Amino acid sequence: MVHISSSIGFKVIANCGYLPGALFSVLPRHAVARCYSQSCHDGLGTLKENAKQILTAALQAVAPETLVQRAIRRSACSQYLHVGDATYPLQKNVYIAAFGKGVYPMAKAVTSIVHDHLVDGIVSVPAGSSTPALSNLQIIQGGRKNLPDSNSMMAADSIMKMANSLGQHDILLVLMTGGGSALFPLPVHGVTLDEKLQAIKAIANAGGDIFQLNTIRKNLSACKGGKLALAANPAKVISFIVSDVIGDNLEIIASGPTVKDSSSHKDCLTIIKNLSIDKKIPTSVLNLFSGKTCSDIAKNKQTFNNVQNVLIGSNKVAIHAAFEKASQLGFDATIHSTTVCGEAKDVGKTYCQMLLENQRLCRKVCILSGGETTVRVEGSGVGGRNQEFALSASVQMFESKLASNLTDKKCPAVLLSAGTDGQDGPTPAAGAFAYPGQLCDNNINTARHHLANNDSYTFFSTLNNGDDLIVTGLTNTNVMDIQIMLIDEPTT
Prior knowledge:
The chain is of the alpha/beta class. The chain is 35% helix and 19% strand. Strands 1-17-16-15-18-14-13 form a 7-stranded mixed sheet, sandwiched between helices. Helix 12 crosses helix 13. GO terms for molecular function: ATP binding; glycerate kinase activity. Pfam families: DUF4147, MOFRL.
């Protein structure tokens, strides 16, 4: 397996293999048959190394601490904080509310800037994160497997209580990244956390996209959909946002806790109807959306005059950094899209055909894209959208005879799909590689079975001793997914 160390770099042994991560020190006894020769001397090994270097550059470009330091300014001994064109007086009046997969380094960076005026703060981070203590900040770990839990709900409740206590001269700095929805959950009155989770799971399993998911989340939340900003009023609220949604819609990122919500309960009912999942939604949720219960959170109609929302990072930033690195490595680089969406299996097939078409040009090419696909869960396996994307692409390569075509032309090619947060679904992998020759007569049926069972992680764990998995660990950032397609010139 490919392993990226916590410093976002690869551990290489004798320029030939990769140090396995501790999570994969033990593999199943019965491994899937290997097809392609992956010696140190073939072009595939070089391309995989190039793909990892490009991914590393992309991740480094969206390191949250770097992004927030660019967005906030304070000159030495200054009593003013500058954000864009706005200026805020500092009077020992600063509070921090942070939630998401990348907020700890953001909180650390912000604390170093406003430390002498920081009064209090709460930071909600994923369980298992490395989070040394920060002055005047309470750090709460929760949201195991990217799902809300009692710890993350406690963090949300504490943040809302802090926000409600603020006055007109106070400043609330809100730090949010992808994963914020799971780390800042507080259901509306009349709906339990379990009922909210049941509704969200039904939508996700039906192939609902992030816009549908977060529309439901906002309307089931006592803190999202602008409600955090309302709670903090009349304090000044400044939100630093790292986007993990296509199009960078501020209402959708972390379900928009500081952004006025334009959605309605009617929109939620439409989503449920379109996905045909009304029988899987708890009665309390349906009653709320149907107006049969009274929520104690009224829809806000006032303007957010005291709120400044600042988008500081996105998939586009990562993709452009990947473009620069690919160009430095000698590839003719192209950005195909930063809005990739759709069913992971279908998108994987499309990218397989794209690989075939570009291979015929016999040029050193890099095609980059980003976005977020979805998975319709029909099996009982373990996997994630990036691994399912890769497995689908690999199966399509075999079925289109792409493998033999490329092998005959001695033109190496590889496709990588990975989540920038380092966690693809409920697995310890960020994604996986797909390439011609990865599958053959010996393992194609096994691959098809695992794909049909949404079991991509199990398949890649046992294929080639896990060498085709991308394992980064938690990266402390999240700007959706990245696909890197590399095609080399014909070898001699």
